[in-house]
Design brief:
CATH class of the largest domain in chain A: Alpha Beta
Number of strands of chain A: 12
Strand order of the largest sheet of chain A: 8-7-6-11-9-12-10
Largest sheet of chain A: 7 strands, parallel
Oligomer: homodimer
CATH architecture of the largest domain in chain A: 3-Layer(aba) Sandwich
Shape of chain A: elongated
Distance between the termini of chain A: 43 Å
Protein name (chains A, B): tRNA G18 (Ribose-2'-O)-methylase SpoU
InterPro entries (chains A, B): Alpha/beta_knot_MTases, Ribosomal_eL30-like_sf, rRNA_Methyltransferase, SpoU_MeTrfase, tRNA_m1G_MTases_N
Order of helices and strands of chain A: EHEHEHEHEHEHEHHEHEEEHEH
CATH superfamily of the largest domain in chain A: SPOUT methyltransferase, trefoil knot domain
Number of domains of chain A: 2
Radius of gyration of chain A: 21 Å
Keywords (chains A, B): Methyltransferase, Transferase
Organism (chains A, B): Azospirillum rugosum
Number of helices of chain A: 11
Helix content of chain A: 25-40%
Chain lengths: ~270, ~270
């Protein structure tokens, strides 16, 4: 049985990490993160690379969550509170009534991450994607299509930001990722590990439908608007998704889904022995 | 030159339709809609099926928008105001500083809409999709891949809701759509006009990569969670997008993008003379 600990006082020090959720989102949590909602909690407890430290749950939700709570590792406290206390702790109406505090897994060195992947692998490399909805949506697609890892340059937002976790329906907790230091030579890093680099760009030289999948494929995505840096485009194979008429705009998360489906099912590589 | 009319009083009756934007979003606008932001304004003024009635623009934005404003039809007033007046009118901080009031085009009869399409056509049919982000995202993909029309059942939200327009980057203003009366036999309607009906479902009988495009294709999408009604699935061809491992969740807008790309470029029909 999990340790269920009722909380009556919003200022109780045991639930201090949950206080003023939105303000703390902005300043960061030094190795910790907050996850919210039942679907995300399930990912955190069953499929996450990261560790749950505690839970804070509305009293009215506890019964329904009990099967999940009973599987909690020893020593993870479940704090419960009435809705008014919860709202006072979080600093806004917490309709979902489910929060978890997690500790980030250590991020691997980029070289160690890439060299540890199979001979046949797909990674995503994100450049300058600062929108939490887009990063969350990209990770959701990465999990759905079995992407092996995600690299994020220093212009990307944090995949463990609360909203990014939520939009990804927990995928940012599951898919291995590494944040690259500013100035990292992304293309060089990928090439060093035998990844064929494929940059998505509206002006790409090859239409996606004609692309065959390399055994080790790295898919590079930039932000909507500026796109990938010219220095990256110049060193990689550029691929476009043709569009109708003058409407030249696909969401970057949707783009990732289209390309990953293509690489996974339309143009898979010859089968190889690993 | 457009008529530029400075507004100093948030209660000026000429800008009454812009008042309390969010509250009015909820109750609806009886044949009118509000569009916001520069990208959406461009769609409204250059590619929309609907009519602009007036604009309300922050003074500081007018100069940059002048090329667009100069192309306005005669008799469309451009109201301008300082930021404080704008915020007081809208009822929240209007950072974008650009609002437009539009009048909905009359919706065609569903039979008239479908019979007027070419021999080779793709339509989307949405069932129970009540989320504005998803409806907006689906329309964005519809515009990007040249979808001919969108049918929405009575459980869907309004594509001309402010947020849906914004998320679609104006595509809901461009792509023809019709909202079906409750109780409409959607599958019967589509079959009557020679559309092959393709339902997306995680349990679909055919994987998308094996699907050939019919000349007249109707793609049916349900909401995340409940999906399409069993009565619809039973009468249509069901198609699935295979996913990795246990992560069985694609966003419905992303799904629409993947399927539309497939139908447009991977499995196009034999070319036909129209």
């Amino acid at each position: 049985m999990p340790a269920i600990i009722p909380i009556d006082d919003p200022l109780d020090p045991r639930i201090a990490p949950y206080r003023d959720v939105r303000e703390r989102d902005l300043v960061g949590r030094e190795g910790l993160f907050i996850a919210e909602g039942a679907v995300v909690l399930r990912s955190l407890l069953t499929a996450s690379r990261h560790e749950a430290l505690s839970l804070l749950i509305a009293e009215k939700r506890v019964a329904a969550l009990m099967p999940m709570l009973e599987a909690l590792p020893e020593g993870v406290p479940v704090y419960t509170a009435g809705q008014a206390v919860l709202d006072a702790v979080a600093g806004f109406p917490l309709h979902r009534g489910i929060l978890a505090l997690g500790r980030r897994a250590a991020e691997p060195e980029p070289d160690a991450l890439l060299s540890g992947l199979g001979r046949r692998a797909v990674v995503l490399a994100l450049c300058g994607i600062g929108n939490h909805d887009n990063v969350g949506g990209i990770f959701r697609n990465a999990a759905a299509f079995g992407v092996d890892a995600v690299l994020l340059d220093s212009g990307c937002c944090d995949p463990l930001y609360r909203k990014a976790i939520r939009v990804s329906v927990g995928a940012t907790l599951m898919v291995p990722f590494v944040r690259l230091a500013a100035g990292t030579d992304l293309v060089g890093l990928l090439e060093r590990h035998g990844f064929a680099t494929i940059s998505l760009s509206p002006a790409g030289s090859v239409a996606l439908a004609g692309l065959r999948r390399p055994e080790r494929a790295a898919l590079l995505l930039g932000s909507e608007g500026p796109g990938l840096p010219a220095s990256v485009l110049a060193r990689t194979r550029t691929v476009r998704i043709p569009m109708a008429g003058s409407f030249d705009s696909l969401n970057v998360a949707t783009t990732s889904g289209i390309v990953l489906h293509h690489l996974s099912f339309v143009a898979p590589p010859e089968s190889v022995s690993e």
